[in-house]
Amino acid sequence: MRGLTIRRPFTILGIVLALLVIAAFVLVAINASTGSIGPTPIPLVTIVTGEAITSNLVAKPGTALASQSEFLPIPSGYVALTIPTSEQQGVAGYVQPGDYISVIATVTSGAKVASKTVFIDLHVIRVGMETANNGAGAASTASSLTVVVTECQAEYITWFLTNASLKYTLESYQDYLQTVPAKDPTCPSVSSAPGVTLQTVKKAYPSLF
Fold it and tell me: Do 67 and 92 belong to one domain?
């Protein structure tokens, strides 16, 4: 018969190959659409406006934060100091990385017992290992806090930890510092710390003695 075109019948193999090609294109399209939109990083510290965001300041969701950062976010001229804490000493475990705390020292001198806030606005950058409280079903509380201080402040805090008792208060988030602190002109570097004795503490905090 003239004018009629002989059509090749579809084979099962041809249909399967066509479906595989379509599936491959669909997978490529899905990967392209989802690959450009990743999960939102979790900030490890307070990030102020204009501050460069580096890999040590944020973490990927679902990852272990303890080993995420390559270095601690310590401003120039400051150091990190780890201080002990407990449920009663550290606001029942509510202090978290990024918070700011104040430190109250209680000193016993002869028959006199005095308490005074000795430091304010200490930035907490890490919270240590949690320890279970006594009692079944009791919540866990961190055993340490790592804060940002000058080397001079670190010497005073070390003296108070040895010779006094310390208690921490959690500052309101509305009062948190919004800028990276500048170097302390009275203690701009580690080498600026002169050391602390009982006499220097009495001079700095006379109301405690």
Answer: no
